[in-house]
Amino acid sequence: MPIKDKLDLSNKNILDVVVDKRRYFVVIILVITAWFAFTALQLETDPSLKSGMDFTTDAYKLHQRYGQIFGSEEFLLVALKHERGAKDPAFLSSIVKISRALSELRYVVEVVSLPEIHIFQKRNGKYWTYPVLMFRDGVPQLPDDLDLKNIRKALPVTDFLLSNDLKTFGILVRMQEEYKFDPAAVTSLLEGIEGIVRNAIPAGTEFRIIGAPIVRQGIVHYSIQTGIYFGTLCLIIATIVSVYIFKSARVTAVTNVILLICVVWVLGLMAALRIPLNSTTALAFGFIPITTLEIVIHMVIRYHLFHEATRDKIGAIKQAVRWLARPCFICSATTAVGFGTLMIGSIPMVRQLGFIMSVGIMTSYFLAMTLTPAFFIRMKSLDAPSDSAVVRDWLNVFLLKAEGIIFGHYKTIVAIGALLTLFLFAGAPMIRSDIQLLRMLSESTKEIQDIKFVEANLTPVNSLEILLEAEPNAFKKPDVWKKIQELETRLKELPEVASTDSLLPFLDYLYQLLVPGRAEHDALFKNPKMVPQLLTLLSLSQEGNRVLRRFVNDDYDHLRISVRIKNSPTVPLTQTIEELDHTAKSVMKGTARASVTGDLAVFSAQTSHLIRDQILSMGIACVLITLLMMLQMGSPTLGLVCLIPNIPPMAAVFGLMGWFGISLDGVTVFAATVAIGLAVDNTIHYLTQLKRNIKMNPNQSIEESVRQAYRSTVRQILSWASVLIMGFLALSISPFRPVVLFGVLGCFSLIFGLFGDMFFIQSLVLWSSTVRNSIKKLVAKEIAQEQPDRA
Fold it and tell me: What is the DSSP string of 589-623?
């Protein structure tokens, strides 16, 4: 339908049902909202973090198999530091008291500490399994220096139990497997541990508690915090912008009601579909209100423009709905596509974000287009709009200067835009990935601060596992153990390896204890019967068998070596994993199959897959968004022109990551896709307005049409971009480091998008005769097609 006919209220239009039947729509929406509000109370979190796991990767399947063989090695670590350390009998006594008390706690399966460890030793001429911590006259004390050195060499796990300077002690607490994902059980256990420690330690003792259950609880807590804070800040931002634009408290209040209804629908949908609240889905609480506000802003400003021509309020609202329905739908669709392509990923939490955002954005479009006319028709404050109240203020001075710059220097603007884009893209090759799990959390969080305390005073806590698989009884053979010795030696030479933990040091300790005087490096392997005999000896006692089965299975065809890594900020985790894997396979080739596993290896593999998936999704999003813009513009050429001002936002993401060292990870990887989906909205509104101006005034010069389209849309463009930029800045409050960086990338991307929509696209039309001619031909073709309809 021709534009003038579409705005002619004497002609029927199916979109008028939105206004004519508004009462029915409002009642239906309020009923559904009430149901969603009740359903939202059942929204769940994800204490197991399973929504962040990809169960289809080979790395995950390997880790599952590893767990079935060797069981769980997930411990809580209580680190206690005293300035006098082992020299203080009261401090040593407290370690004994704490260890015994922790063993009695509910949910505790095992406590590993110096008072609890027993090791085969020779004391007073007798061989027996003695405790590491000795008591003399009832006072605990460490073994003498030589014995302690030998024990530490035999049991590398003691690195977690005693620091080199003897000032920090550690106690490992293993929780019952079935309760480690139970928030109430974890909280109860942590409270119990803290209470025991506080009551037992002498004055001047510091302590920290770290472990995977604590990190998981922290991530769940911070996910909820991020959702609440981000949603609240975005609502505050939307309120401030609404007050500034609308100059009406009542209009702002109604706008906020619409935004809150949209949030309730999102919460209800998440609860109904059992989508948990996690570190990614929490972002929906901010982005949904922001995308909804865009439609409300356009609706109110467009209503005022039409109300200046017709004093009929309902007529002006109908014209606004007719005018905005299609472009706002396309804008919502492009944003939904930007988020929706995240569902290509294999990680549930990323798919969940893509789904809830794409569905939520289209839902918010329906709610905003329905509720805005219904609520605003009832408001007397909109009966007689003031020309200066909504449309004009001091900002016009800035906008008029910007307009003058565009028409006076459009060639320079095009050149600056092109050069800046090239410069930003030049930074892309310098992008590095960072897929370490603990770097998800900000350095300022308590969980990371506690881990840093332990690593500074006790030992590195990050580890990877090397799994060796061979034929049955292979790990009873001395030549195989000689290869394992070579492997451990090679592993310790790697820069990122802090230490290794395996059965070999303990076998060597037993050999030196039982066969003294054999100092040769490989003396253990010269007697073919010695290794099998030592393994049998170990299996005879409960303590020995526990150490044995920690590293070798019953059939002696699977063996593990635990490798503690330094986790240096400058070394990618993938590089460390590749070095371990290459070393293990090269040494054990022909003897055993080697593979690297562990929680960090699983997370690394799935994040690498996620990055590849999201690079693919970005390409798909660009194609789909371009097709939608072609559909809206009615021309492939003009659709491609729509894409041009949105290349700088994409370049900004890659440029900032490359030039400023922002790492590519599981969150920042989809910054470009999301930014394009959001930034393209303003381009669509401007070019749609430009097309309409040319069609309604065919005899007007294209320069004047560009100017009129700019004046008609620039305030909405600036307002919408400002809300988005501030919304992305609000992500800086998140304790998740990748989310903060995602906010920074999104913010700068939208700043460049604002440049593209406020300066570059107009300058491109004025500078390029090809673009101008394409627009003219398209409009002429559409006018020719509409002539029979008018006749």
Answer: TTT-EEEEESHHHHHHHHHHHHHHHHHHHHHHHHH
What distances in angstroms separate CA 445 from CA 450, 486, 738, one per listed residue? Answer: 9, 40, 14
Q: What is the pTM of this model?
A: 0.79
d(CA 622, CA 641): 13
How far apart are alpha carbons 89 and 169 in whole angstroms? 13
Element housing 196 (H / E): helix 183-200
Residue ranges of the chain with per-residue pLDDT less than 70: 1-10, 380-394, 433-439, 517-522, 666, 786-791
Question: What confidence score (pLDDT) does residue 435 get?
Answer: 57
Q: Do residues 68 and 467 touch, judged by C-beta distance below 8 A? A: no
As a dihedral over the C-alpha atoms of residue 240, residue 244, residue 250, residue 251, rounded to 10 degrees, the angle is -100
Contacts of 666 (CB under 8 A, 6+ apart): 347, 350, 435, 607, 610, 611, 738
Q: How far apart are CA 89 and CA 597, in angstroms?
A: 41
The region that residue 367 occupies, defined by phi over 0 for left and psi between -120 and 50 for alpha, beta otherwise, is alpha
**Domain residue ranges in the chain:** 1-41+247-393, 73-216, 452-597
Tell how far CA 342 is from the center of its chain. Answer: 12
Instruction: Compute the distance between CA of residue 409 and CA of residue 541 in angstroms, rounded to an integer.
Output: 87
CA dihedral 63, 67, 68, 69 (to 10 degrees): 100
Pairing of strands 558-565, 497-501: antiparallel
> Rounded CA gap, 185 and 348, in Å?
25
Model pLDDT, residue 387: 44
Q: What is the pLDDT of residue 750?
A: 87
Pairing of strands 462-469, 206-211: unpaired
* 275/285 Cα distance (integer angstroms): 14
Query: What is the rounded CA–CA span in Å between residue 781 and residue 791?
Result: 16
Determine contact, residues 139/115, Cβ cutoff 8 Å.
Answer: no
- CA distances for 78 relative to 181, 210, 580, angstroms: 19, 7, 29
Region of 54 please: left (phi>0), alpha (psi -120 to 50) or beta.
beta
Q: How far apart are CA 383 and CA 389, in angstroms?
A: 13
Residues 6 or more apart whose CB falls under 8 angstroms from that of 146 comprise none
Contact, 285 vs 227, CB < 8 A?
A: yes
Task: Tell me whether residue 212 is exposed, middle or buried, using C-beta atoms within 10 angstroms of its C-beta: 0 to 12, 13 to 18, 19 or more.
Answer: middle
Tokens of 713: 């849309």
- Mention the CATH class of domain 73-216: alpha beta
How many C-beta neighbours within 10 Å does residue 188 have?
15
Strand partners, 111: 173
CATH 1.20.1260.10 fits 1-41+247-393, yes or no: no
For the chain, the helix, strand and coil percentages under 3-state DSSP, each to the nearest 5? 70, 10, 20
Bridge partners of 298, per DSSP, are none
The pLDDT value recorded for residue 104 is 94
pLDDT score of 584: 96
Q: CA dihedral in degrees (771, 773, 776, 779; nearest 10)? A: -70
Tokens representing residue 83 in the block? 């300035």
- pLDDT per residue over 575-603, tens digit each? 899 999 999 999 999 999 999 999 888 88
Q: What is the DSSP letter of 305?
A: H
